[in-house]
Amino acid sequence: MESLRTVAITGARGNLGWKLLCHFVQLPQVDRVIGLSRGLPSETQLAELRALPGGEKAEFTRCNLADPGDHRWRDAIIRSTDVIHLAAQNPYPEASWADATASFDMTLNSALAAVDAGVKRFVFTSSNHAMGRYKDPPLANTIGPGELTTDLSPGVGTVWHTGTEAMDSTAYASAKNAGERFCRVLAERSQGCTEFVCTRIGWCQPGVNEPDTLSAAGTLTKSTSTDYDPEELDRSTRWFRMMWLSNRDFIQLHEKAVFADSENWPHPCIVVNGMSANTGMPWSLIEGREWLRYEPEDDVTRA
User: Fold this and answer.
1) Are residues 255 and 296 in contact, defined by beta-carbon separation less than 8 angstroms?
2) Which residues face 10 on adjacent strands?
3) Cα–Cα dist 131/26, whole Å
4) SS3 label, residue 124
5) Cα–Cα distance measured from residue 116 to residue 137, given in angstroms and rounded to the nearest whole number
6) Three-class SS state of 49
7) Which residues are registered as beta bridge partners of 274?
8) Backbone angles phi, psi at 87, to 5 degrees
9) In what helix (H) or strand (E) does residue 274 lie, and over which residues does it extend?
């Protein structure tokens, strides 16, 4: 019988990290979930956790992942069999270059520590903004539905207009793209002793995450307006709607990223797209289906 797993989740108090933490404590094959973050959970979060079966499996470590000398997160990773890395200084696509640099430092530190500790699997939650240039011509003209695969040349950073302001996610996306490349190098360095899964996730909003709140804004921190070029707004709205990732598909993707058998992987570091099964979207789900057995259940066009 396979031994029980201890899963460390960085950025555990955030939107995505909390959803995963609340799920992983309920899994029978998980013995312990270690939440890593700059602060401790709120009373509301702790009450939610206490109401869950397995909630007692969770523990929390307050730490600074950007500080390579912080022994608190290092000790937690040493005790873990698996790491899911979501932490970022600014988790939104409008992150500055300073934010992106700090976020990349967190990825470097945690991934290196995972290899040094002999962690079984490191899951890096990347972003489809790493391929954001495929939103517009000329790259948009090179793909059809389902043809935006993870082996295409990077198109780093989405450029769009919310209707009220111009946006560019290049800084945010560059940290994700570099993180993916670093994971690949570390997988080779460890000779596959630590396996890596990079998930280029789409838009998974806080809370219930319903499609009717997706818009050309492209981020929760910005608003949109119809007082702009309608063709450009339509293109941006469609792009962001097609990247929808429902809560249950997000959770399924990361559960399988931790537990999937790697026997058929082409490399000890794989990259998969993380969207729901949105009809007509450009994103390919072939890689996730083949390597992780990821089968999304939701579709933005039917929600």
Assistant:
1) no
2) 36, 85
3) 34
4) strand
5) 43
6) helix
7) 201
8) -60, 140
9) strand 269-274
Q: Letter for the amino acid at 64?
A: N
- State the Cα–Cα distance between residues 274 and 241, nearest whole angstrom: 13
Other Cβ atoms within 10 Å of 29 Cβ, number: 14
- DSSP H/E element including 249: helix 247-259
* CA proximity to 194, closest of 259, 266, 122: 122
pLDDT one-digit tens code per residue, 141-199: 999 999 999 999 999 999 999 989 999 999 999 999 999 999 999 999 999 899 999 99
Residue 218 is given by DSSP the state -
Residue 26 to residue 14: CA distance in whole angstroms: 19
Rounded Cα gap, residues 87 and 60, in angstroms: 14
Residue-wise DSSP of 125-185: EEEGGGGGGGGSTTGGGG--TT-B-TTSPP----EEE-SSSEEE-HHHHHHHHHHHHHHHH
- DSSP-assigned letter for residue 6: E
Q: State the distance between the two ends of the chain, measured CA to CA, in whole angstroms.
A: 40
Please say whether the dihedral angle defined by the alpha carbons of residues 143, 147, 152 and 157, taken in this order, is positive or negative: positive
The answer to whether 135 touches 160, Cβ cutoff 8 Å, is: yes
Predicted pLDDT of residue 178: 98
The Cα 111–Cα 48 span in angstroms is 30
